[in-house]
Amino acid sequence: MTTAPPPPAPVQDAAETAPQAPLRAGRPTLARSEAINAEILNAARDHFLSLGFDATPMESVAIAAGIAKGTLYSRYPTKEALLQAVVADRLEAWGAEAGAKHGPMPSDFKQRLNYIARTTLESLASEEIHAFQRVLTSTADAGGELARALHEAGHRSAIAMLSTTILEGTASFPVPPRDPTRVAEMLMSMLTGWYDAHRRVREISHEEAMAFAEHAVDVLFHGRAAW
């Protein structure tokens, strides 16, 4: 019995047989870019808190984040810029944590002030915030440009938010406050001054801090004629 010859092999197109050039890596997607940034900030935060600002090498942060050193420097050209970004990121995270714990900001003006006062004192009691304060005071730049930049990112942004709350809450008052920023500074000074003075010599309970927050708002609120 004869067997049929095998069918001819299919003819491949020249384009199919030609060696393919490797695909060039494109720019990362927005999601991947954000993920890279989160990895950088997390690695930098861990380094700053464990080693301090001056002893943290940028190269070590890049390795911990799993990226090239050039990628890190393209986003944060200096270590000072990286620390500012870390602080800004943590401020946002602390605000989100406060919102998750206490719920949305109340609509009533005085209750809004109470909300801000309570969350401010809670944040001052945070161990992470204490650790960042130690980092800032131990840097060679303590009191210099970096300290001023971080002051703007932290304290001044909180004052600006509180000033806006005061402006909005007093919109229906017969006489608006002459200087809402000064009123905001007064409340913030009462809170931070009281906390700093007592924390140095004793433990402050959460209940005591919350009671002081509401008392400070009462004092400020009932002195509206002086606003």
Textual characterization of the structure:
- This protein has 227 residues and is mainly alpha-helical.
- The chain has two domains: 30-77, Arc Repressor Mutant, subunit A, CATH 1.10.10.60; 87-226, Tetracycline Repressor, domain 2 (Orthogonal Bundle), CATH 1.10.357.
- The protein is 67% helix and 0% strand.
- The protein contains ten helices and no strands.
- Helix 6 runs antiparallel to helix 10 and helix 8 (145-169) packs across helix 9 (180-199).
- The N and C termini lie far apart (112 Å).
Q: Please give the domain count.
A: 2
- Note the gap between the termini: 112 Å
Sheet/helix structural class = mainly alpha
- The proportion of residues forming helix, as a percent range, comes to 55-70%
Instruction: Count the E strands.
Output: 0
- String of helices and strands: HHHHHHHHHH
In short:
It contains 10 helices and no strands. By secondary structure, it is mainly alpha-helical.
Topology:
Layout lengths: L13 H4 L12 H22 L6 H8 L3 H7 L3 H24 L6 H16 L2 H11 L7 H25 L10 H20 L6 H16 L6
Keywords:
2 domains
